[in-house]
């Protein structure tokens, strides 16, 4: 029983690790660079992002535990559903360094579009295994839809300087 508690906590906390590192490494770019970008009126306040990501990472982490547990741990049946989850989580963690770290909005856009596909694939694969786990991912899919639209809009509204041209 004690070991299952540790697994539950471990799976639930895991997504927060990359999310926290992404914030920590790139946090200085928010007031210096991000705040100066042209953003649409529907862009959430910077105060909303940590709250939203805490809720979303907690839900997806716990959902991954449910799937892992239902499949009997790291079995051959877990390769695809947890592989999709791991891949989408890696792309989720890669977005801040592309966007905030290198200011590469085009790469951030490519990243989030691939992330969207993997997140949808994760939810579809999980639905047959554990419906609660799949439903726990629905708010994340909604947030990703908004984040994708926001990334597209910021990319379009803030043209990057072309190499070799001065402003």
TrEMBL record:
Its main location: membrane. It is found in: Membrane. The chain crosses the membrane at residues 6-25, 46-66, 78-95, 107-129, 135-155. The keyword ATP-binding does not apply. Keywords: Membrane, Transmembrane, Transmembrane helix. InterPro entries: TspO/MBR-related_sf, TspO_MBR. Pfam families: TspO_MBR (PF03073). One of its GO terms (cellular component) is mitochondrial outer membrane. It is a multi-pass membrane protein. Gene3D superfamilies: TspO/MBR protein (1.20.1260.100). Belongs to the TspO/BZRP family. This is TSPO protein. The gene is Tspo_1.
């Amino acid at each position: 029983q004690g070991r299952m508690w540790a697994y539950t906590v471990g799976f639930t906390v895991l997504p927060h690790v990359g999310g926290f590192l992404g914030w920590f490494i790139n946090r200085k770019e928010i007031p210096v660079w991000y705040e100066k970008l042209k953003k649409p009126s529907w862009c959430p306040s910077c105060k909303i992002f940590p709250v939203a990501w805490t809720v979303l990472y907690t839900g997806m982490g716990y959902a991954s535990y449910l799937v892992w547990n239902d499949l009997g741990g790291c079995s051959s049946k877990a390769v695809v559903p947890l592989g999709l989850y791991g891949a989408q989580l890696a792309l989720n963690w890669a977005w801040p360094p592309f966007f905030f770290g290198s200011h590469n909005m085009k790469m951030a856009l490519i990243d989030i579009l691939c992330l969207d596909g993997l997140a949808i694939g994760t939810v579809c694969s999980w639905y047959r295994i554990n419906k609660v786990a799949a439903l726990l991912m629905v708010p994340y899919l909604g947030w990703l839809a908004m984040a994708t639209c926001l990334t597209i809009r910021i990319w379009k509204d803030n043209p990057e300087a072309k190499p070799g041209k001065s402003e």
